[in-house]
Known about the structure:
2 copies of one chain form a homodimer.
Chain A: H1 6-9, H2 18-28, E1 32-34, E2 41-43, H3 45-64, E3 68-69, E4 75-77, H4 78-81, H5 85-91, E5 96-101, E6 104-112, H6 117-127, E7 136-145, E8 159-169, H7 172-192, E9 199-202, E10 214-221, E11 227-237, H8 239-244, E12 247-249, E13 255-257, E14 259-266, H9 268-277, E15 294-298, H10 306-316, E16 322-324, H11 331-340, E17 345-349, H12 351-355, E18 358-363, E19 369-373, H13 377-402, E20 404-406, H14 410-419, E21 423-428, H15 432-442, E22 445-450, E23 469-474
Parallel strand pairs in A: 3-7, 15-16, 15-17, 20-21
Antiparallel strand pairs in A: 1-2, 4-6, 5-6, 7-8, 8-14, 9-10, 9-22, 10-11, 11-14, 12-13, 17-18, 18-19, 21-23, 22-23
Helix pairs in contact in A: 3-7
Amino acid sequence: MAEDKKLVEAITSMDVDFAQWYTDVVKKAELIDYTSVKGCMVIKPAGYAIWELIQSQLDARFKETGVENVYLPMFIPESLLQKEKDHVEGFAPEVAWVTHGGLEPLQERMCVRPTSETLFCDFYANEVHSYRDLPKVYNQWCSVVRWEKTTRPFLRSREFLWQEGHTAHATAEDAQARTIQMLNVYADFLENVLAIPVIKGQKTDKEKFAGAVATYTIEALMHDGKALQSGTSHNFGDGFAKAFGIQYTSKENKLEYVHQTSWGMTTRLIGAIIMVHGDNSGLVLPPRVAPVQVAIIPIQQKKEGVLDKAYELKERLKGFRVKVDDTDKSPGWKFSEQEMRGIPVRIEIGPRDIEANKAILVRRDTGAKIEINLDNLENEIATLLDTIQKEMLERAREHRDAHTYTATNYEEFLQTLNEKPGFVKAMWCGDRACEDKVKEDAAATSRCMPFEQENLSDVCVCCGKPAKKMVYWGKAY
Amino acid sequence: MAEDKKLVEAITSMDVDFAQWYTDVVKKAELIDYTSVKGCMVIKPAGYAIWELIQSQLDARFKETGVENVYLPMFIPESLLQKEKDHVEGFAPEVAWVTHGGLEPLQERMCVRPTSETLFCDFYANEVHSYRDLPKVYNQWCSVVRWEKTTRPFLRSREFLWQEGHTAHATAEDAQARTIQMLNVYADFLENVLAIPVIKGQKTDKEKFAGAVATYTIEALMHDGKALQSGTSHNFGDGFAKAFGIQYTSKENKLEYVHQTSWGMTTRLIGAIIMVHGDNSGLVLPPRVAPVQVAIIPIQQKKEGVLDKAYELKERLKGFRVKVDDTDKSPGWKFSEQEMRGIPVRIEIGPRDIEANKAILVRRDTGAKIEINLDNLENEIATLLDTIQKEMLERAREHRDAHTYTATNYEEFLQTLNEKPGFVKAMWCGDRACEDKVKEDAAATSRCMPFEQENLSDVCVCCGKPAKKMVYWGKAY
């Protein structure tokens, strides 16, 4: 039995050291490995399979809204990066520069894309001529590079995987509508696929994307009470269009600039899944992104008929992602492993169960055990996976709501930020100076100005001047 | 009517200038666009959708054989690249070097991966300890960079998309079996999905991959009689394992080196599709990789009921990829566009057809028109797409066979290579000197030593010494 517990004992408790717990889960659930390339990671099969499920389901949602996929180069010539002033200032300090191709120095150095606004603009400047060419609603799945000083698996690494949508529209209204449409696709995806509730809102000017007119965000709360920006959607207005000369002839035969948007989500979502749902036994995966949804673990598997029965059940569960653990490890070891990897349901099946035409289902999220009649297997599994998916969202929502506070004076505000991990809702005057002060006093940032506004008070929580917006504040990853 | 022909007239005839015809198709079918990044291209929606269909069907075949997907960093530190001598010599002259991260010079420069053997070896050295950890059968979908001097869309570009499988096995036999297994997956995929027949064989030492013990290849013949290496599978033996120290403890408790393989296919396959199946009206796509399989083109679409009927037919063809062209262009223009884009079948439906409960199906590959009763629509389309898929393969096979020659003396050999575009089968002594001479005399290379050997003569076609192998020779992309 000592061996059975080995996997679990190696994990730090999340209440003792959340950061170490996170690193332990990421390693023990075999999601990533570190590499000789500083700040970059290997995404291992168990981690990449989650990304594939995210990708396929998100991509299908994109395509339903008319998105088309493309692929643009990974390199950006320096002169192209410099065309939009705010954008280059935001990204130049953190890009990787290619200076040599083969044995020769390049005439102009190029960076590895940190994001592809400039390349899409260059492309659209060639492609868009008439109102008939609009809208362009393109997306690409690729990796990007940002030369971060400190890195953490999935949350912040020098290279990460993402999708980046880039669109061009005839009017400001069309661009704004697409910006919000994609934010809604993201929010719906997080809630209904990843079981993560989000706050939708707009970033303040201080926190918006380099070059954007407006940045919208979905903000999620992790188990430790820190916020995670989980997806952003930007409206660029016609700023990039003017910098890159993207013009079209309108129906009225006038030359007009296009209006643009971009929106992206990344492998950071895997970090969000871990930190919202995980527990001291490891990963807990929502069924819709679980590469294995059901682990069948035979008990006394050497007894005649047990393994056969296990495979028979797998065969019956064809519509689900099912694995039989037929290794020669002990059942206890297998339970620990299934728990560490976050597999939503395990089926325990042994000689006595078979004789009674029964099996035990064990929920990963709650640990609850359910005895079922094997005749109802398919329905029981379908219903249970649905229930788990829904209840995981509800628990995450309850946790978030229980860790969302309000403050109407600065003392209370700072005290809450420092002592109660979570979101703090408070009024804001709209001045950057107050955001800077909050950052200095509490190492917290404005997460967003939520679409669902509340009037908590008439004055800014920081300076006392008249309030313009209710803001979610918090410490963030 | 002048306008109707515009799309077609812009294409160079393939018999006049095949290279220009290729470039015209690639542009007019909207597969790619050139960019400000020299030697790199944008893959546009019509091109990327083909890649997505290649990717999803190939990936499913991989997974059936137990392949798991992962993601490794895009950067390789110089010291890592240098660990295997032949490998670094093969790739160092054509890699892009990153020398700065953000504002600081790097302590060690890194190249953007041209291929990831070295990274996988570094990873496996950490991961593999016991025979229980084997085999590792990992693959990644990513982009790679090779600093080519001259580039052509899909065929040779500085950045391209591909998959690269990298495996580690306990024994030499297991590695060899996996090498051949994947070559067979590739050959089957080309024949049954891309409708491209291939010659399977082994590369000569001169043509094999840098660092491999043996390289296997599938070679296809393009319409102009040039060969295209379409996929390769390499057996590395334990050479990389020794360079990187990848060892495991066997069941007998002995320390052993692993045996490795790698195998890859790229966006070059899209070039193969174009050059095998295309014609003077543009692209011709095999149904299984056609993003749109059926274009419904309404005739006199302003007449009542015509567009409604077109949408009704689309609705009935839900199991297929169908598009209704309801733009305000003329039918002739739409026909040209559907032909240029290679859509396998078009349905012409007008008021008289509707009245008669009929429609005209037109095959893209042969131009044949088929009048069908609308009651049989679903079956007719299913059967026709199957027929097209099969006949495209057969026509490509006939073309290849008709352009495959044999030669038993050097004069005949050179004359055939120079005057009859195609494969030339001839015997070879096994010496590199003869390959070098053929390259100098006819600008041709050994494509492969086919698995299906024939004894055409007892002596080498070049030097007259005893022959060891029958070889396919040709001029290649």
